[in-house]
């Protein structure tokens, strides 16, 4: 600062500058230290301990002053990478990251724009209703989830009644072909053929047992016969798709999309409202269309916000725990397990494996760090128009 | 404001189909939001036996019993003030310390900025589950186990990384000339901070408040580790007393969950205008 | 002046220490679910002890479910376990047993005291560390058939004694929309804990499990595969419905009492779910019907079983005393006093009456509802017990079995495939445990 000044003034500025320099240094540390001290206390110690434990042979019990433990090498890391369940959990986490970054963000942006530009009616209502999921406890979401997808819940009821009706129509066809309700061998055999071997497995002697059953109704009223046959042979609906890997994640991803989009909606909406209306107006007067306004005014103005939102989304989705824990607990058969649950089960369920658990969480940190660097790189390459 | 954007113009560009699709998605989201809240509140007025037999029907003879029971058993009258203290204390602490450090990182020159700032970023990425055991060891070592101080300290520490990241990025965008001219007028750094930076930082502060208030209000894993006395606990721990998979009293569980949700809902409804306005206030011209 | 103050302060501190010495403080970690029957009674139990023992100050921390397990793990890592704490006898509290963080109660309490408890409760082999780290308050049968006798009689059936009896019921009941047996298995553990363990005990026996643990037998051997086939057949024969694998554990009792199934399989602890709820005064099954219409039965005879009549049972949860309390100290005396109070006839009788469990303490009398009264009778009628699978193996192993049983239930995996998966998981676990 002072180097550009000419010699006569140099002496005066020297004293001012060094005084100022000291003052600036003092202020700098006074401003940084409170936050940094707390941060060191709360976060740095866990990070260091986590690193130490991940390469140790500590096996539980009193950590300091108990049984001796020491360095054991990088076995835990090797085991994590060799464990197929790690890759399964990582894959599920990547789905969540993708949905967060390429689902929540764009959707939140579009919703925000629609509300901002008053393209939808009652913007206040939508803004409120879309943000509120953030507030709902994940425990409620988990409970409701179970009730709705239960084989005795509302979805099952609808699907079962459709299946039953379909089956009953087929049986009706058989009876109609035989000229009405009949217990002839031919009719009974046709019904048995219709239900196949798995349906017949419930009988010890299918022909006799089914005739017994049907004759007990004496053909009247016919609706009861249909009901009984429906009960016997129609496979009840259950959410079996939830047990298939990949598909099982879909509902979770959908709930994540629903729950957190509102957060980004608020961030984007607020930053859109920051844009000087006159700029937008004058652009329109100059003949810019909606797409051009978006491309040349709104998007550049929000590029910083978008990057920040992406970083929030990445770190949030890699460390997410509570929602998946409440909805599925990682099940069934671990198909919806994510890294944090994988880590949790190694640290708190049954016999704890601390080296493994800490190795997992450090790997998680590294992955999100990599993703955030990537986001920053993308911003440098394509964004930054706002400065 | 936005109403200046003519509706007729936007209609031309956006096809009716696109609009319908947006309404549909927003409608689904809205239904998914309103129905669970309705379902929860409705079931909180049923007896457990009634819930077990019918989970989707309206209560036959609504009862307040669940609320009375849950309030007493959950010790909510003790937990409520704590939750408010922790949430407000942590949020205010995070915002103040983040802005302070953010200002230093963004506008004061130092070689220390790069390493310290980057170390904060690391903290965004740690999961709560990783923190539990080390933090417990630490608060015991410092002799602050079972204190409100420890809870606030940890909540602030856990919220600082993202707070500092957003504050620093935000304050960097404030033109340096603003600070320099104030310096030339002879203002000290702290005066500049209080009289210039803080008022200009309302948007980022509001953003941080949105992020932290709901997070802190619902947090239970860390506080469970930090305190054992009921009089120091927060609402989520009270609610968690009711939510086992072997639960036999759904009625009280739903009442407890409603008790936990209503304050946040009320907070949002009351302050929703300030929330969006806050982020938009004191705009830095792009 | 300053000096005087200092002296005064020191004096006060010394005095304070003397006074404080008389009062022993005990840290307690209690496990308590606020919405479970018996909650109010539990609160009263603790208040009573505090009132009767003013010389002991109790610092009670009450937790439940995952937060409890997290906290216990954290206490163990820091070496600051509470003086008296609630604990599992199995791998769920592995650290306590394996690192011997609790005192050996057989030494601390002596045979004179322990003789008042059932042999199963005081057998150290029923605990993970093979020493008496805790005293199980209950010994539970994890496999009970709750039978709706009225529903069976109305449809012309007797109580089932064999597998074929069950099979005979299928089509007649199913035509009316009633399942023969309901076992909600969405959570994975109920099938393994409440039925498969019994089947394994019948088809293979505890010796077989011991042989596996010793590396002398494999899960892919015939007895284990055959046991899985029994489960497979239950679904194939229509005795159990495949969709039950998607029904949550909590939903079961409501569905059972609404007549969706004739038989409901669960642990004996579930009797408490049907009795009168003290808060609302309502019961899923009114006491009169509990007496008349419902019975508890063992799972019927299975074709090919080698140990007829055995049922899976396991030591339940209970209290432990921290190993870090110095022997012979005043603190230890206070801890023992509290411990004995918790296991006294008085307290155990309260727990029994709330339907929490049937105490391991002998001759505890209480006024209980009919269904709960049937539990000790059930024990007496079926004295032979076998292992519960998840009490014998690590989560890394039994979780694979739980998942496999769901897959068999849904018809997506064969018994042979599940057996191979479990064997693989066991070998992996064994390799890593060394």
Textual characterization of the structure:
The complex is a heterotrimer of chains A (387), B (286) and C (434). Chain A is mostly helical. Chain A has 3 domains: 1-46; 82-150 and 255-382, MetI-like fold (Orthogonal Bundle), CATH 1.10.3720; 154-233. Chain A has 15 helices and no strands. Chain B is an all-alpha fold and 286 residues long. The two termini of chain B are 17 Å apart. Chain C is α/β, with parallel strands linked by helices and 434 residues long. Chain C folds into 2 domains: 25-136 and 317-356, D-Maltodextrin-Binding Protein, domain 2; 141-313 and 383-433, Periplasmic binding protein-like II (D-Maltodextrin-Binding Protein, domain 2, 3-Layer(aba) Sandwich), CATH 3.40.190. Chains in contact: A-B, A-C, B-C.
Secondary-structure blueprint of this entry?
The complex is a heterotrimer of chains A (387), B (286) and C (434).
Chain A: H1 7-54, H2 75-82, H3 84-116, H4 123-131, H5 138-149, H6 154-177, H7 185-200, H8 206-215, H9 222-233, H10 249-273, H11 277-285, H12 290-318, H13 322-327, H14 339-348, H15 354-382
Chain B: H1 7-13, H2 16-43, H3 48-53, H4 65-73, H5 76-107, H6 113-123, H7 128-142, H8 148-172, H9 176-184, H10 189-200, H11 202-218, H12 221-226, H13 235-240, H14 250-280
Chain C: H1 2-22, E1 24-31, H2 39-52, E2 56-63, H3 65-78, E3 84-87, H4 94-98, H5 105-114, H6 119-122, E4 135-136, E5 139-141, E6 144-148, H7 149-154, H8 163-175, E7 179-182, H9 189-203, H10 206-213, H11 222-236, H12 252-257, E8 261-266, H13 287-293, E9 294-297, E10 311-315, E11 318-321, H14 330-342, H15 345-353, H16 370-381, E12 385-386, H17 389-392, H18 395-410, H19 415-433
Parallel strand pairs in C: 1-2, 1-3, 7-8, 10-12
Antiparallel strand pairs in C: 3-11, 4-11, 5-10, 6-8, 6-9
Helix pairs in contact in C: 9-11, 9-18, 11-18, 11-19, 18-19
Write a concise synopsis of the structure shown.
The complex is a heterotrimer of chains A (387), B (286) and C (434). Chain A has helices at residues 7-54, 75-82, 84-116, 123-131, 138-149, 154-177, 185-200, 206-215, 222-233, 249-273, 277-285, 290-318, 322-327, 339-348, 354-382. With 387 residues, chain A is mostly helical.
Keywords:
heterotrimer; A: 387 residues; MetI-like fold; flat; disordered N terminus; B: 286 residues; mainly alpha; 75% helix; 0% strand; disordered C terminus
């Amino acid at each position: 600062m002072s180097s550009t000044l000419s010699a006569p003034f140099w002496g005066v500025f020297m004293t001012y500058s060094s005084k100022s320099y000291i003052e600036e240094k003092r202020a700098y540390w006074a401003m940084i230290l409170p936050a940094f001290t707390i941060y060191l206390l709360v976060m740095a110690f866990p990070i260091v301990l986590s690193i130490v434990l991940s390469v140790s042979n500590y096996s539980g019990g009193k950590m300091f002053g108990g049984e001796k433990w020491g360095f054991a090498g990088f076995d835990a890391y090797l085991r994590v990478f060799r464990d197929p369940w790690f890759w399964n959990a990582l894959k599920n986490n990547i789905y969540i990251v993708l949905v967060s970054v390429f689902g929540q963000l764009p959707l939140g942006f579009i919703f925000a724009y629609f509300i901002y530009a008053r393209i939808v009616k009652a913007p206040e209502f939508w803004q409120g209703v879309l943000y509120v999921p953030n507030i709902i406890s994940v425990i409620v979401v988990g409970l409701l989830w179970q009730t709705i997808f239960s084989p005795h819940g509302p979805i099952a009821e609808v699907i079962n009644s459709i299946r039953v009706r379909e089956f009953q129509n087929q049986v009706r066809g058989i009876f109609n072909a035989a000229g009405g309700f009949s217990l002839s061998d031919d009719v009974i055999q046709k019904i048995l053929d219709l239900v196949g071997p798995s349906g017949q497995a419930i009988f010890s002697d299918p022909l006799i047992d089914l005739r017994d059953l049907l004759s007990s109704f004496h053909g009247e009223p016919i609706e009861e016969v249909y009901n009984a046959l429906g009960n016997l042979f129609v496979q009840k609906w259950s959410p079996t798709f939830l047990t298939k890997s990949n598909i099982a994640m879909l509902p979770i991803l959908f709930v994540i999309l629903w729950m957190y989009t509102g957060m980004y909606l608020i961030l984007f909406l607020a930053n859109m409202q920051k844009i000087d209306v006159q700029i937008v107006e004058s652009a329109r007067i100059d003949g810019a269309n909606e797409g051009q306004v978006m491309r040349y005014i709104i998007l550049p103005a929000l590029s910083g916000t978008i990057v920040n939102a992406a970083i929030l989304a990445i770190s949030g989705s890699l460390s997410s725990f509570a929602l998946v824990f409440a909805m599925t607990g990682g099940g069934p058969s671990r198909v919806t397990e994510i890294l944090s649950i994988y880590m949790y089960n190694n640290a708190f369920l049954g016999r704890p494996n601390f080296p493994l658990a800490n190795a997992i969480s450090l790997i998680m940190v590294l992955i999100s760090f990599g993703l955030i660097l990537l986001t920053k790189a993308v911003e440098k390459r394509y964004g930054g128009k706002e400065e | 404001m936005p109403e200046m954007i003519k509706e007729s113009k936007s209609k031309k560009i956006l096809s009716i189909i696109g609009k319908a699709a947006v309404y549909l998605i927003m409608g689904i989201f809205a239904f998914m939001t309103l129905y669970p809240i309705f379902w929860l509140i409705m079931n909180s007025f049923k007896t457990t036996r009634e819930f077990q037999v019918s989970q989707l029907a309206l209560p036959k003879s609504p009862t307040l019993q669940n609320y009375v029971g849950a309030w007493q058993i959950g010790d909510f009258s003790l937990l409520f003030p704590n939750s408010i203290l922790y949430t407000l204390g942590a949020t205010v602490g995070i915002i103040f310390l983040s802005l302070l450090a953010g200002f230093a990182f963004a506008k004061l020159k130092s070689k220390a900025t790069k390493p310290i700032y980057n170390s904060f970023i690391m903290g965004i990425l740690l999961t709560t589950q990783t923190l539990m055991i080390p933090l417990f060891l630490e608060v015991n070592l410092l002799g602050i186990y079972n204190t409100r101080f420890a809870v606030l300290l940890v909540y602030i520490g856990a919220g600082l990384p993202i707070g500092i990241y957003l504050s620093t990025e935000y304050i960097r965008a404030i033109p340096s000339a603003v600070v320099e001219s104030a310096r030339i007028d002879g203002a000290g750094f702290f005066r500049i901070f209080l009289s210039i930076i803080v008022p200009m930082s309302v948007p980022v502060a509001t953003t941080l408040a949105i992020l932290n208030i709901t997070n802190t209000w619902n947090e239970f894993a860390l506080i469970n580790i930090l305190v054992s006395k009921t009089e120091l606990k927060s609402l989520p721990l009270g609610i968690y007393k009711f939510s086992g998979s072997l639960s036999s009293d759904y009625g009280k569980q739903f009442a407890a969950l409603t008790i936990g949700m209503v304050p946040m809902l009320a907070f949002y409804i009351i302050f929703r205008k300030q929330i969006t306005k806050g982020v938009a206030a004191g705009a830095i011209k792009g | 002046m300053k000096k005087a103050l200092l002296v005064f302060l020191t004096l006060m501190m010394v005095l304070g220490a003397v006074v404080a010495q008389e009062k022993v403080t005990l840290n307690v970690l209690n496990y308590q679910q606020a919405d479970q029957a018996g909650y109010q009674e539990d609160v009263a139990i603790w208040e009573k002890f505090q009132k009767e023992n003013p010389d002991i100050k109790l610092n009670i921390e009450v937790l439940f479910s995952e937060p409890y397990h997290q906290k216990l793990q954290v206490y163990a890592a820091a070496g600051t376990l509470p003086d008296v704490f609630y604990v599992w006898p199995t791998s769920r509290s592995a650290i306590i047993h394996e690192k011997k963080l609790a005192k050996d109660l057989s030494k601390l309490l002596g045979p004179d005291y322990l003789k008042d408890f059932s042999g199963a409760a005081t057998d150290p082999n029923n605990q993970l560390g093979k020493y008496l780290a805790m005293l199980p308050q209950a010994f539970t049968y994890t496999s009970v058939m709750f039978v709706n006798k009225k529903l069976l009689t109305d449809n012309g059936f007797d109580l089932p004694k064999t597998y074929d009896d069950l099979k005979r019921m299928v089509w007649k009941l199913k035509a009316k929309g009633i399942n023969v047996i309901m076992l909600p298995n969405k959570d994975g553990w109920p099938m393994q804990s409440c039925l498969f363990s019994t089947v394994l005990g019948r088809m293979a026996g505890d010796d077989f499990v011991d042989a596996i643990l010793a590396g002398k037998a494999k899960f892919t051997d015939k007895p284990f595969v055959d046991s899985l086939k029994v489960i497979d057949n239950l679904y194939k024969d229509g005795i159990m419905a495949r969709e039950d694998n998607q029904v949550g554990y909590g939903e079961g009792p409501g569905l059972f009492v609404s007549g969706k199934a004739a038989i409901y399989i669960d642990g004996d602890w579930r009797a408490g779910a049907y009795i009168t709820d003290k808060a609302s005064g309502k019961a899923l099954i009114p006491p009169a019907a509990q007496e008349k219409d419902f019975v508890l039965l063992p799972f019927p005879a299975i074709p090919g079983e080698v140990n007829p009549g055995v049922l899976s049972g396991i030591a339940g949860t209970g209290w432990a005393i921290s190993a870090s309390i110095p022997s012979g100290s005043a603190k230890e005396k206070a801890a023992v006093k509290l411990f004995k109070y918790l296991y006294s006839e008085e307290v155990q009788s309260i727990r029994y009456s709330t339907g929490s469990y049937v105490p391991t303490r002998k001759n505890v009398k209480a006024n209980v509802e009919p269904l709960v009264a049937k539990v000790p009778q059930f024990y007496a009628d079926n004295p032979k017990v076998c292992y519960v699978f998840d009490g014998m193996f690590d989560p890394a192993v039994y979780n694979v079995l739980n998942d496999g049983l769901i897959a068999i239930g849904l018809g997506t995996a064969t018994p042979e495939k599940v057996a191979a998966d479990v064997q693989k998981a066991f070998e992996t676990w064994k390799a890593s445990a060394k």
